[in-house]
């Protein structure tokens, strides 16, 4: 990038989903307007733009799955669908004046830290720029994962992932194979079952499914939430409080989840009368070990005569014939993969080169780890939203995002206090200490003890995705930056280490 005059910004945000738009709003509220939001697509929305499959909806109540600073009194249902959530994000973009900062069709191809200039060099599909601070808000549910199935390339029919739904392909009257039984699959199956000729579900592991307490939000409720905002806030607080009370069962006392398993079994029994099918759909692991799913229509759809269940994964494809790991053979015209995303091996990590000349993916080869879910050692002024160990099993990720936005705001304040052209680099020992605490607490959680193999775990069997505590605790722990956990970098003069225990102002004065 040398020899050219590129655009320079104070902050570059990658992604325009909830995280990226939230960061943009917070920057403007901090009085920072010198920033851009780099988006690879041609519109905002992130995962709620990409996932437009039939039946797509959120499994967190709408009034909790929205920004606290941008409440929406007009949610149509308790659990709103993808079109309404995407429309909400478009409104947030307009209300907070974010469009001048958006750079569409600007997929980030490479990020490289320049230690001499103390800034990031950014190569995008739409040009190059530099930034003092980079905020990665690509999210863990952004890059679909499709398993390497022998013969798949020669399948003569249609193949696509749930997050890349082909709306031009007509499923009506087709023989469709659904691969996977995660959150997307349990919404897709009942949505397409009535129109396809035959639907075959390949199930490696059955999920636990609970009733979905969904209903239309009445006009009276909407009016009340608009005219009396306190009622809207109380509703959100109640939804939050109930979920906070559930956390200990997931993180400390998984045996308490037995009652929830009973409710799930009873929910299945009401819809599935065939004992053999019920047995095939009953998990053999503790509820909560994998993500708990919500649906009133999944089990009834599976009991329909045009639906078949294969209790194994897809092993091989031979022409139009799909071979299950159990040896079963199925003819199909289309294959839909509901096989999740690159969560513990996020592709963005391969594109970020830090202070040591290594990529984030190389540094994370033994497992993702960052300080307070935000800062990886060796990557100065690079913050991740929804980073390692910030995921939730029972509540709204918007709460975690907003906590991390507090951390981002204080991070930028500390840089301002330290003076022009400084950078903060997370100390390796601080990252190790934080990660050690996380992994120690993780040992007794249901995700680690429940007897399942889930996407919460990486290739080494470590849980690098979930947060083993309440959202309230995470908010307290990310309220502000502790400069003792960082090295303060200045151009050419090397690193000035801030002394442990000093106040923020005193540390800034010493570093200066």
UniProtKB/TrEMBL annotation:
<dbReference type="InterPro" id="IPR020946">
    <property type="entry name" value="Flavin_mOase-like"/>
</dbReference>
<dbReference type="InterPro" id="IPR051209">
    <property type="entry name" value="FAD-bind_Monooxygenase_sf"/>
</dbReference>
<protein>
    <submittedName>
        <fullName>NAD(P)/FAD-dependent oxidoreductase</fullName>
        <ecNumber>1.14.13.-</ecNumber>
    </submittedName>
</protein>
<keyword id="KW-0285">Flavoprotein</keyword>
<dbReference type="GO" id="GO:0016491">
    <property type="term" value="F:oxidoreductase activity"/>
</dbReference>
<keyword id="KW-0274">FAD</keyword>
<comment type="similarity">
    <text>Belongs to the FAD-binding monooxygenase family.</text>
</comment>
<dbReference type="Pfam" id="PF00743">
    <property type="entry name" value="FMO-like"/>
</dbReference>
<dbReference type="InterPro" id="IPR036188">
    <property type="entry name" value="FAD/NAD-bd_sf"/>
</dbReference>
<keyword id="KW-0560">Oxidoreductase</keyword>
């Amino acid at each position: 990038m040398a020899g050219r005059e590129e655009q320079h910004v104070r902050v570059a945000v990658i992604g325009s989903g909830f995280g990226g738009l939230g960061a943009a709003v917070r920057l403007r509220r901090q009085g920072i307007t010198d920033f851009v939001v780099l988006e690879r697509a041609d519109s905002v929305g992130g995962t709620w733009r990409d996932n437009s499959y039939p039946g797509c909806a959120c499994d967190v109540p709408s009034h909790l799955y929205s920004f606290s600073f941008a409440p929406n009194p007009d949610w149509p249902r308790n659990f709103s669908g993808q079109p309404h959530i995407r429309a909400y994000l478009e409104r947030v973009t307009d209300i907070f004046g974010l469009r001048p900062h958006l750079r569409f069709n600007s997929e980030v191809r490479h990020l490289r830290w320049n230690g001499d200039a103390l800034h990031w060099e950014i190569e995008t599909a739409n040009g190059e720029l530099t930034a003092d601070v980079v905020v990665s808000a690509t999210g863990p549910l952004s890059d679909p994962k499709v398993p390497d199935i022998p013969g798949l390339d020669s399948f003569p029919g249609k193949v696509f992932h749930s997050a890349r739904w082909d709306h031009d392909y007509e499923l009506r009257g087709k023989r469709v194979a659904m691969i996977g039984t995660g959150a997307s699959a349990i919404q897709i199956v009942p949505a397409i079952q009535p129109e396809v000729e035959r639907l075959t579900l390949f199930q490696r592991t059955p999920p636990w499914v609970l009733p979905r307490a969904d209903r239309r939000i009445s006009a009276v409720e909407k009016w009340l939430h608009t005219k009396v905002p306190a009622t809207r806030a109380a509703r959100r607080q109640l939804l939050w409080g109930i979920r906070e009370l559930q956390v200990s069962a997931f993180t400390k006392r998984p045996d308490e989840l037995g009652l929830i398993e009973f409710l799930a079994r009873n929910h299945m029994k009401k819809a599935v009368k065939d004992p053999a099918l019920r047995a095939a759909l009953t998990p053999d692991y503790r509820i909560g070990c994998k993500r708990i799913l919500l649906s009133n229509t999944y089990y009834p759809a599976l009991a329909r005569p045009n639906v078949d269940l294969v209790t194994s994964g897809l092993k091989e494809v031979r022409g139009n014939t799909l071979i299950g790991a159990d040896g079963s053979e199925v003819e199909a015209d289309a294959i839909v993969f509901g096989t999740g995303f690159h969560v513990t091996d996020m592709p963005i990590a391969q594109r970020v080169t830090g202070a040591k000349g290594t990529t984030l993916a190389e540094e994370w080869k033994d497992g993702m780890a960052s300080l307070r879910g935000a800062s990886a050692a060796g990557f100065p002024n690079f913050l991740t939203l929804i980073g390692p160990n910030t995921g939730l099993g029972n509540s709204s990720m918007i709460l975690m995002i907003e906590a991390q936005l507090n951390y981002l705001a204080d991070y930028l304040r500390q840089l301002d206090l330290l003076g022009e052209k400084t950078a903060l680099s997370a100390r390796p020992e601080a990252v190790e200490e934080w990660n050690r605490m996380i992994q120690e607490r993780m040992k007794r959680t249901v995700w680690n003890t429940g007897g399942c193999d889930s996407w919460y775990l990486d290739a080494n069997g470590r849980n690098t995705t979930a947060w083993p505590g309440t959202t309230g605790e995470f908010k307290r722990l990310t309220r502000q930056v502790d400069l003792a956990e960082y090295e303060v970098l200045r151009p050419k003069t090397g690193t000035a280490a801030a002394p442990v225990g000093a106040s923020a102002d005193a540390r800034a004065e010493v570093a200066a």
